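Checked the freezer inventory, then went back to the computational side. Two predictions to log before the end of the day. The first one is the construct we discussed on Monday; recording sequence and tokens without edits.
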Amino acid sequence: MITLAAVYALAGIYFAGLSGLSLARRRWGNGGFWGLLALSMLAGDRIGDLGNGVLALALVALAALGLVRPPGQGAAPRPAPASARTLFVPALVIPATALAGTALFALNPALVPPKQATLVALAAGVLLALALCYLWLRPRAAEPLSEGLRLIDTIGWAAVLPQMLASLGAVFALAGVGQVVGDLIGQAIPPGSLLGAVIAYGLGMALFTMVMGNAFAAFPVMIAAVGAPLLITRHHGDPAVICAIGMLAGFCGTLMTPMAANFNIVPAALLDLKDRYGVVRAQVATALPLLAVNIALIYWLGFR
């Protein structure tokens, strides 16, 4: 049976390759950072909770000390870029394979666990697209790894920010933050008010996402505070609607915060914008009405 262990191993091998290439170029901080990430992918389940915690602190230390740096003047020269039309085909292979693979794996649950089918199919799509690029574009053997390193070094530590923030959300939920937030919200909304609970849930998802930088980090807190006890248990709401559209409400917060650095700060840096927060300012006019629509959809669809 193919499980997520194979996907983690594949990702670990990739990051180990990035680390080795960085060390070969004497970029010690970058090499250490990607090497630690490779270790977490390859041996995270064997080093235990304490080992993973120390590893996460080491990643933070390398980033905070400024040792994870973008490629400088001495970076390897880039090859001549392929046309956008040429690159579109391999890029389209990945989502197409993920979609088809998820459907096929659902017909054969003995091959892939149903809950892991999408991620396994996505990894298969990446491998298939890579093979297509080798056959069609005929790059040098190490060129995909070298270009991957150039891109991820340009993004830097923000590449792992979603995973770190999602982990933080899980820690907050285990620490009982959701219960505390739920008690505070319960005092603010009228007793038994469905509309008040829906508004509190939608706004809470957006606001916590703005603070924590990631809707995946906000979700465990808000589902424990409002979603599960009030909307699902007390008002008998549809869990699928409440969870799915609640995440969309959280993504509205992503559009409005610099804490979502990989979405809002990194693009400004890559495009060399004069206004560091220009991306955030441009997105607010879209995010606010979209948040209102998502809250309305939760109220309309979740309790029919």
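The second is the one RB wanted added to the comparison set:
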Amino acid sequence: MPRDIRFLVCVSFSILLGSITYGQEVFSLKDCIYRANNGKCVAIDVSNQNIANLVFIQSKQNYLPSITYSNRHNLSTGRVLDPTTYQFLTNRSVYDMSTTIGGSMTLFSGFERKNNVTKAKLNLQYALLETEKTKNDIALNVTALFLNIVLDKEAIEVCKRKISMLEEQEGAIRKKLEYKVATQGDLLNIQADITNAKVEQSSAQNNLNVDKVSLCELLEIEDWENFDILIEDEDFDTVDLRLWSVSDVVSSAFQLPQIKQGELAIDIAKSDVFIAQSSFWPTVSLNAGYGSTFSNARTRPEGSDYNFRDQFRDNMSSYVTLSLNIPILSAFTTSNNVKQKKLACTRAEYELTQAKLALDKEVKQAIVNANTSYEKYTLLETEVNKCREALRQTQTKYDAGAATYYDYQIAVGNLFQAEAQQLQSKYEYIFRTKIIDFYAGESLTE
């Protein structure tokens, strides 16, 4: 192939790919969940997680001693106290300086630091679970909106089939009018039905737009008009009866982040109790320092100058201090604080029990609702078949003049109402099964 032709082919192919890629954004359910889980909502939890990690690191570093260095310079005039001899000098300008390096370390504080490390580690685990919980909530919301969009699209197709059928019948009525077999009233009635069907289609389209806007908000996509979904899940086409073990699903649901957070909340509350109790214990601390001073007003005993190096060396001093502080009375602040922390621990236990009861009820209700949706879908599937056959027979009778347009109108309305209800029950069942599978420990994107 000539070079120029190859170049034109490559350019054309690139333009085609660009139009496909950037013309319309198409996302599968997996794509939607992945994008939403990398958005700002999760980013906030990740920031909190990083903060908790820094607090945990700091709690371990609190075992290290604190070291400080100070260097002071001072110029005084008039009646001045020489800091190296502690003698007052009159009508003098005195420059003095001192430098000190010191450190302090808590040797024992009633295991407060140990319990602070434990609490900080638990808070970090809690933050990690909060991120996981946020991702789960987002995945459920995305799945619900995704299925709503699928339902909206199918509802629009139902409306289109209805409009097509009515328009075809309108043409048949116009021919009958030419032979005086139908009346003008029949034509007006079917035109009114076509208008109503178009209104239903417009309403379904509006529902689709609203759900697309809502999903795009979760995905942080501004151009919702060019957003569309890609259906990859075969379960959207078939509806099969699913059987679940309630006890197994509930047991798996108790491994969800919100339950683990409840368990961690109890451990965190217990750590708060231990930290509060540490104030009953004595505190042992160690302080040490090393430094020196210099003053230009100081001289040697024989009156000669006392240079900086010699004076700084001779004035060197150090100290070591071991202190013990024993709490005796603090207006019952410590004891009351311990009581408050114990009450908070009891409250955390109650909250975990309530969370488990609520989740148990939620799982059981989800299974009942799923079974109800399946039964409704099965009944409506039979009803749709009956309505379709009834419409076929009514159509035949109407064409033969043995039925009125009113009979035909009722048959059409019954069929498409049953189809709409069947679609609703279908996607209700699909969504509820995905929720139950989520409780059972399965990923929503599998």
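For RB: The mean pLDDT is 88. The first helix runs from residue 3 to 23. Let me know if you want it refolded.
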